[in-house]
Amino acid sequence: MIRPVTIVTLSRYVEFFKDYTAILNIYDPGVPRIIVRDGNEIPDSMLEGWQVLEGVQPFSITKNINKGWFAVPSDHDIFFVSDDVRFTMHDTTARMQEIAYSDKYVGIISPKLLGRGSPKCCNPASAMDETTPCELWYPCVYIKRAVIDAIGYFDESFPFGKDDIDFNIRAIDAGFSLAVTNAVSVVHEATATGDSPSSSKTYGSEEIRNRMNAGLERLREKYGEKWDELQWESFTARRQSLGL
């Protein structure tokens, strides 16, 4: 059964959100949308059409993501889109939904990323290209409700970074595949150093690296000796190893 879908976005700075929401209004104006607003820089006047949630303080990416996802109706899928993403085609959400439901195993799928992304996210080979936990980045991902029902939400012991890899591993463990499609593309903006513009403005490149390294250590701690295998294991490889 194809479910309805809600867009969820986290945002803090006017300079990024204004371009994001302007393009969203052109390409996907009718899709329900939730913003988790961190701080008060983005004025209410820019938020027409958005369900507005105030971010968790002190700031935590995982807690803010979960707050947004919790607010999505329980019968809706989630299209999680960063404010440094720019849609490039009309009906992006519906296109992603159609592709996601073309394969019953797919639980999470990304469009092709033009700009910043993993090698697989930037160069998917097909309309349904299976990928691995480390290769599926989260600037823009369609998540089926069945995944949330099966594994819950983000692990809040990851305060910043690598929480998406953990979620990907848990999805594969629950019997879902991860994929990237070349049939839909979005622009993913980056700074000159290759970082997220919003995160770079908040923390700077060195602090981002420190926080990402802390997330990596949390992954190693959580998965122990299995970590080296799990970060690159696909759903197909998992099924084959189990003789399914």
Strand portion: 15-25%
Chain-averaged pLDDT: 90
SSE order, one letter for each helix or strand: EHEEHEEHEHEEHHEHHHH
Q: Helical proportion? A: 25-40%
Q: Report the major sheet.
A: 9 strands, mixed
Q: Which class best fits the helix and strand makeup?
A: alpha/beta
- Rounded to the nearest angstrom, the distance between the terminal CA atoms is 24 Å
How many distinct beta strands?
9
Unreliable stretches, pLDDT < 50, 5 or more residues?
none
Tally of individual helices: 10
Computed CA radius of gyration, to the nearest angstrom: 17 Å
Q: What is the 3D form? A: globular
Relevant terms:
single chain, 244 residues, alpha/beta, 9-stranded mixed sheet
Characterise the protein shown here.
The chain is of the alpha/beta class and 244 residues long. Helices cover 38% and strands 22% of the residues. It has ten helices and nine strands. It has helices spanning 14-27, 61-71, 92-100, 119-122, 145-151, 163-173, 197-203, 205-223, 227-230, 235-241, and strands at 5-11, 33-37, 51-54, 77-81, 85-87, 106-115, 129-131, 140-143, 177-188. Strands 1, 2, 3, 4, 5, 6, 7, 8 and 9 form a nine-stranded mixed β-sheet that branches. Strand 1 (5-11), helix 1 (14-27) and strand 2 (33-37) form a beta-alpha-beta unit.
